[in-house]
Amino acid sequence: MTRRTLGLVAPSGFMPDPAVVDRAAAFFSGRGWQVEAGESVFSREQRFAGPDELRLADLMRFATDASVDVVLAARGGYGLSRLLDRIDYAAIKARKPVIAGYSDFTAFNLAYLARAGGVSLSGPSAGDFGAAAPDPYTIEHFFGLIETSRYSVDVSLDGPAGEHAGRLWGGNLVMVAALLGTPFFPRVGHGIFVVEDVNEPAYKIERLFYQLAQAGVLRQQQAIVLGDFDPVTPMPNDNGFDLAAVVARLREIAGVPVYTGLPYGHGARKLTLPIGGRAHLTVRRGGRATLELSAYPSLRRSSARRGSQD
């Protein structure tokens, strides 16, 4: 059996607890993987995992190294926005790495898609594998996806029955909106737009959706799928204004079907999704849905697999 290699890189915030990295490395070592970590994983400068130049060099080294099978962001935080105009997207696209992260990593996911048509993964970071008790659902669907060229998962969604197919894209809502109007925002028409966020007040979430709607982004999609937003930060002036109210208004202004309930986001239990890959979403009456994913980099390019139900 081929021994796989994992590359850990911290392109954004520093790791507050080095033990998380140790546990993540032990997790993969226990599965027979070799683990390499960039200097950024152990570095700190202000709120960042070392200077911009170090984080950029680590990201480029691992993302273009043919001996590294999977590149995993150590965590999110903030910092990738500083690097976007210096990343060599064409060099990464030539390698087509399996590269994953979430939260601030959305900046890379979308920029890579916009600048090179590259597909990368929005899913767990080292922090998820380095948790005291990694979530079995997250583990199953991460490895299920990267070990096959096509992946299917059954989920429960709230929204109208229907069938939608297109390019899957999105990620962290704040980061998506932050890139709007820049060269790093992909122009995706007839896509399946999946978003999540955490620790944001309901009014800010709605404002971001209005920004995307008024920019013409939402009505160009096939469907909008919402992942986790918990916890939503309560504000003194909310007076009952909550995420449910935001979703109701989103359904009024989006112009396309809106679904909620996808297990995806900042929580411990999350799917891994290919940003820029192909998706086929079938939603049946009663909310049972099947999400079929394809056209993404994987460890095996010619197999198909179905994940367990949620």
Structural class comes to alpha/beta
Model regions low in confidence, pLDDT < 50 over at least 5 residues: none
Oligomer: single chain
Enumerate how many helices there are, as a single number. Answer: 9
- The topology string of helices and strands comes to EHEHEHEHEHHEEHEHEHEEEEE
Helix content class: 25-40%
What percent strand? 15-25%
The number of E-state strands comes to 14
Choose one word for the global shape. Answer: globular
Largest sheet: 8 strands, mixed
Distance between the termini: 30 Å
Mean pLDDT: 96
Overall radius of gyration? 18 Å
Strand order, largest beta sheet: 10-9-8-7-12-13-6-14
Describe the structure using short key phrases.
single chain, 310 residues, alpha/beta, 8-stranded mixed sheet, 6-stranded mixed sheet, 9 helices, 29% helix, globular
Descriptive report:
The chain has 310 residues and is α/β, with parallel strands linked by helices. Helices cover 29% and strands 22% of the residues. The chain has nine helices and 14 strands. It has helices at 18-30, 52-63, 89-95, 106-116, 126-129, 136-146, 173-179, 202-214, 243-253; strands at 5-9, 34-37, 70-73, 98-101, 120-122, 150-156, 162-172, 192-196, 223-226, 258-260, 273-275, 278-283, 288-294, 304-306. Strand 3 (70-73), helix 3 and strand 4 (98-101) form a beta-alpha-beta unit. The mean pLDDT is 96.
